[in-house]
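Data availability (excerpt). The following record was deposited with the supplementary files.
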Amino acid sequence: MKLHLLHDRAASAAENMATDFMLLQRYPEVAARLRHYDWHRPAFTFGYSQKIAFVRAQLPDATPLELCRRPTGGGVVDHRDDWTYALVIPRGHDLEAAPATQSYRLIHEALATALGWQAIAAEVQRECAPPADGQTCGVSGVCFQRAELYDVVHARSGAKIAGAAQKRNKHGLLFQGSIARAAVGAPVDWEKFHADFAATLARLLALGAEPTPWPDWDDDELHALAEHYASPEWLEQR
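Predicted structure:
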């Protein structure tokens, strides 16, 4: 099995979510696949199970932006200044069958290692620290409000640097992740980080990494799926 490194793409929020889901559902080869992507316009995404009323209450006032429900879980994510990626682990790889906490930890260890090669004091949070408001540990409704177990945090400031959400089905594991650039605390060569992250992931997953063209999949299906992700029915289903 290989780790396919796909070329960067920028798209709308709905198109990005559709593309990630297509990478899980319709990829023609049995290979892991990693992509980094950007956003055509300021965007927020939120977890599959979140209530739309709660989500809308977290958004900045009077700021034009795109909003999209993800196929994965997790909380509200501000993509206006982040480094966003998706990783798919297909059926047949040990990590796909592992508990969610294990996949979350391993992928974030690779991310923290890659940042560390640029002298960024990043580490994986090893304990769940209850928030100051007395609530119990668990997934925050807003992704970067506080760090949870196995998030990537700044070793000195404690600020959350990276979080992610996952979805498993019969095809494999979809992992959607975000790095808050402002929380990193120092300049980053993002092209170098991308290469280092891919290399570290390949080593930890015991896979050979190789740049790979995008699959020649059905554009009509991708367009229809993007329309679904952009629809009010999908956005407001909860």
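Summary of structural features: The chain has one domain: 2-235.
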